[in-house]
Amino acid sequence: MASSKIVDLRKLLADRFVKQPPAPASVLPTGISALDEQIAGGLPKGGITEITSPHASSGSATLLTALLHQAYRERYFVAVIDARDSFDPQLMGKPILQHLLWMRCHSARDAVRCSDLLLRDGNFPLLVLDLILNASSELASIPQTTWYRLQRLVENIPTAFLVLTRQSMVASAQLKLILQNRWELQDLEREQSLERLAFSVRRSHLGASDLRQQLVS
Questions:
Q1: Closest C-alpha among 139, 145, 174 to residue 160
Q2: Among 11, 110, 128, 149, which residue is least crowded by beta carbons within 10 Å?
Q3: pLDDT single digits (tens) 132-189
């Protein structure tokens, strides 16, 4: 039964999200100028980026909204794997939602399986795995070998794979960022909150050889 569902999902993806030829650029711009300047133009394609949001109101929802607006402007598709079924599509307009595949999950394990499937499919310039609201005990059960397996999948396709977490956990991430905001409700209600997103770079652009060396060691 499970295998037939996977076949059906692959067919749905093939019908709705037509593969496009890869762009020559090695990064995918986020549309957030302050961030793109820090990370050499955008999220690395063929690699994992982990953005850690350590505080409850660090701005991860604002970040995700900005990424979806960028995808709409640039006319490409985004897959969001929602590990706690917390994404609110009502915040987006219908034109933006037409560029989104929303995978609703109820556990980190299911979300990782979806990530594996979509990376093997290779149709999406941007794949976002949102693990921010999952319990630490649940996330700790994900073996580090899982992340290295996902890295090996993504390095063969022109996809930027973004993992959103509450604390750093993806050892194979090519780029690691930390959202430094600690916003109150009144801050979120102000205009131009996007421009006030603050990031720090913890690790930047490790090559595939570095990742393999980490795995060996």
A1: 174
A2: 11
A3: 999 999 999 999 999 999 999 999 999 999 999 999 999 999 999 999 876 655 555 5
